[in-house]
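EI: anyone free to look at a 443-residue chain?
SC: sure, send it
EI:
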Amino acid sequence: MPGLYSVWRTGAIRAILFSILVGFASGATAQVPLAPRDVILNWHRMALELVRHTPTQTPPVASRAFAYLAITAYEAAASGDEELQSLAGQLNELMAFPPREAGAEYDEAVVQHAALASTIQNFFGNTGPTGQRAMRAMDDGIGRLLATSVSADVVERSRAYGLAVAEHILQWSLDDGGATIENLGFPYEYTPTEGGQFWRPTNAIRLQQAPLLPGWGDNRPFAMPDGASCPVPDHVPYSETEGVAFYVQAREVYDTVRNLTEEQRTIARFWSDDPMLSPTPPGHWVSIALQVLASEDADLPTTVDTLARLGVALADAFIGCWEAKYQFNLVRPVSYIKRLFDPAWETVLITPPFPEYPSGHSTQSGAAAMVLERLFGKDFAFIDATHEADGLAPRSFTSFRHAAEEAAISRLYGGIHYRMAIDNGLDQGECIGAYANALVTRR
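SC: here you go
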């Protein structure tokens, strides 16, 4: 579907213009068969748009949604491909899926569409009116297109099976600890820990006087055994004494922001990925994967394998990172710097409302790079156009590790993190990514 893909890729439309998709589905190109791979890629692009319209989709919550969406696509494909090994029994508490009817004919694109449309509606059901209209338009448009080339009995059988896969995923998700998000993820009551080294609110927004999702690290992970499976070392001892390691780390943030080059400022903006203004940090890596899969013209097994491993790694990265963040509960640079160095100092980016150590950008980027390197190689060069429609020029990378390191250091340039949070976050991500890489997907 090169025409439809180019519309998404260039950002000429957003989810609010899905009438274009409906027109595509009913137009002259409707005689062209729609491949299962195309269905998967477009529903994932839909998810990237929906996170912009759904206030509860903060980065940890978005990572969870991306993981379940990708696993749905994988299992829908694996159920009809003898070479793909189900992740049931490999992912924590995921039981075997209902089998297909022996000897019956299924259309793989219809199976995928039914499964993913239902999964999207389950995990983004609280999105706003724009997102609701977009989901309906996507569902109707692709559904009509598929029905033109498949017999009615095959459509019905395939649709029923896709819905069964989605329902299995939904039931599995309900008791993972992240299914219900109250108050946008902020506790109704919170008492800050006393002491200069501990996190304190970094802005005046009433809701954010408590930190985001303090219990997320207790959620059930996907591939790693528990949230503490990839611990980070203790940060350097807190100190307010000039010349001591912690003071030096804070001073580096202060001096870096005061002396930013234009390139460093561009890097900070490119990787900021703020909620409601972007597809979020995990969505940025999903976007990279979608671009790579399209450029490589990847087949269906490679597509679902890539997205499932990446989704698992990203979701587990946020669980592992959040477990560590609330273990250490470390003060943000902006709080330390304003109190000890310069009360007028400001960050380049908005400091997120949760503890500092380790860096979430770094952990998830390290995990993503591990997965994508395994699938495409350590020297895979690519161009990332994730934010082209938002006015940010594409950036070129010599490898996934190169991109992960840039995403990580961007948080120093933005004034968000100390270097130790960046370096140790990357290491934590590599550990978490190894669990996703250990999944067996081919028989």
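EI: The chain has 15 helices and two strands.
SC: 👍
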